[in-house]
Design a protein that fits this description.
The chain is an alpha+beta fold and 162 residues long. Helix content is 19%, strand content 36%. It has a single domain, classed as SoxY domain (Immunoglobulin-like), CATH 2.60.40. It has helices spanning 3-8, 12-27, 47-55, and strands at 61-62, 65-68, 72-73, 79-85, 94-101, 108-113, 122-127, 133-141, 146-157, 160-161. The strands form two sheets. Strands 1, 3, 5, 6, 8, 9 and 10 form a seven-stranded mixed β-sheet that branches. It has a three-stranded antiparallel β-sheet with strand order 2-4-7, with no helix packed on it. The longest helix is centred in the N-terminal third of the chain and has 16 residues, at 12-27. The chain is elongated and about 75 Å long.
C-alpha cells in the first residue's frame, strides 16, 4: 500500500468515534430539555393524586399492614423499611403493595406486585426521605379491597431535628 492510500483509510478507532457521534446526534432531539427557559416542566403528583392513581376511589381500611421503620432516621438518604401484610388464611391474597412518603417531592416510593405463588406478602428495601413525615403502605388484595398502615419517621440532619 502506498502512503497516499494509507492516509485515506480509516482505522477502527476513527470509525467507532464517528459512529458514536452519529448516534448521539440522532438521539439528541429525543432527549428531554432540562431547565430550559420556555420549556414546560414536568410536575410530580401530589400525595392525593399519587394515591388516587394507585388505588382509584377505593377507601383503604386501617389494619393488616405492618410497616417496620426506624422512629428516628439519622440520614434521610437511606432509610430501611420492611412491610408485611397479615395473611388471614383465605384464598384472598395480596396483589400489590404501594408505598408513599407524604412529604417527598414525588410521594411514590415504590410498588411491589405479588402473585398467589409469591408466598408471604413481605418486602424490604430502602427509601429516601427529605424530612420528617408519614410513610404509608397500601395493600391491594385480589378481591379488590385495600388495607393500609402508616408510620411517622423523624429525619434528623447531623443529629438535629428536621
Amino acid at each position: 500500500m502506498t502512503a497516499r492510500s494509507q492516509r485515506n483509510a480509516l482505522d477502527r478507532r476513527e470509525v467507532m468515534v464517528g459512529a458514536s457521534v452519529a448516534a448521539i446526534a440522532a438521539l439528541t432531539p429525543a432527549l428531554p430539555a432540562f431547565a430550559q427557559e420556555g420549556q414546560p416542566q414536568v410536575q410530580s403528583p401530589t400525595m392525593p393524586e399519587a394515591l388516587k392513581t394507585a388505588i382509584g376511589d377505593a377507601k383503604p381500611i386501617e389494619g393488616k399492614v405492618t410497616i417496620d421503620l426506624p422512629e428516628v432516621a439519622e440520614n434521610g438518604n437511606t432509610v430501611p423499611f420492611s412491610i408485611s401484610i397479615e395473611d388471614d388464611g383465605s384464598t384472598n391474597s395480596v396483589k400489590a403493595v404501594h408505598v408513599f412518603a407524604t412529604k417527598n417531592p414525588n410521594p411514590n416510593v415504590a410498588s411491589f406486585f405479588f402473585s398467589p405463588r409469591s408466598g408471604k406478602a413481605q418486602v424490604s428495601s430502602r427509601m429516601r426521605l427529605g424530612s420528617t413525615q408519614d410513610v404509608l403502605a397500601v395493600a391491594e388484595l385480589t378481591d379488590g379491597s385495600f388495607y393500609m398502615g402508616k408510620k411517622t419517621v423523624k429525619v434528623t440532619i447531623g443529629g438535629c431535628g428536621g
